Amino acid sequence: MPYPRKDLLLSTMVAVIAAALVILHFFDPATSGIFPPCPVRYLTGWYCPGCGSLRAVHQLLHGNLRAAWALNPLTILLLPFLVYGTASYALFELRGRYLPRLFLPAIWIRALCAVIILFGIARNIPFHPFELLAPAGVLHP
Amino acid sequence: MFCSQCGASNADNAVICAQCGRNLQAAVSLPAQQGSLVQPSGVYVQNYLVFAILTTVLCCLPAGIPAIVYAAQVNGKLQAGDIAGAQEASKNAKMWCWISASAGLAVVLIWGFLVAIGTLSNLNR
Questions:
Q1: Helix (H/G/I), strand (E/B), else coil: B23
Q2: Are both B69 and B110 inside the same structural domain?
Q3: Which pLDDT does position A36 carry in this prediction?
């Protein structure tokens, strides 16, 4: 009987996402101490590809697209894909029907992987124009 | 694997779907379509790409990178019609997603523990 387990997985998923969004709405990761620091940044002092992404989602929840973009442009670009993919998965599990399912050719996924890694490297280069990619680099050059 | 007709979850080596009776092996032998955004064959093999990107970009953990690489392998093997290989890569993608997510959860829990200790020691002062 796979169904009870799936229901549990789905309801856990929905609860985690909802809780994360509520917490992110009310607490700004930039100023509140309740969010852990990025382990990569903490241990090495470097920005990782995800640095600024939680602050970006916080800004997005408050309608500040510009500030969100400045904190982590990669997250903002990937967000529509992530939301669509999650919605498609949830709909499939709930109703057994797909949204039109995106199938990305392998080469696109490899390119995406390269973009994420290169973005992580580029935002650590401490001069113009790469510094614009660092969290809030556009706002505080 | 998931049945392409009714979506029920079946054993990876199932011949017919336990729920609707569709022949699952027939779908496997369909030729792959190149350069299409539609699933190449009737078989759906989860590549966990969304989960992998979530743990990489939102939890900023390097363990998400192998998960993305395996996600690419899943789709590459599906494009080549290698269903068994795609399922193998899918398992690896899933494993790395969970490694990445668990590491993220561990960081959150350790941080929460430290914050709690800090709060308590401030109260005692």
A1: strand
A2: yes
A3: 79
Distance from CA of A21 to the nearest CA of B (A): 12
Does the reported pTM lie above 0.90? Answer: no
Chain A CB contacts of B56 under 8 Å are 49-50, 116
Strand pairing partners for B23?
B16
B35 and B53 housed in the same domain = no
> Using one digit for the tens of pLDDT, what is the confidence trace for A48-86?
888 888 889 999 999 888 888 888 899 999 999 988 888
C-alpha A74/C-alpha A52 separation (Å) is 10
Domain limits at B114?
47-124
Instruction: Report the Cα A63 to chain-centroid distance in Å.
Output: 16
Question: Among A64-78, B25-39, B56-70, which stretch is predicted with the lowest mean pLDDT?
Answer: B25-39
* Among candidates B57, B71, B75 on the partner chain, residue whose Cβ is nearest the Cβ of A78: B57
Domain ranges of chain A: 3-133
Same domain, B118 and B64: yes
Is the domain of B13 the same as that of B26? yes
CA-nearest residue of chain A to B105? A36
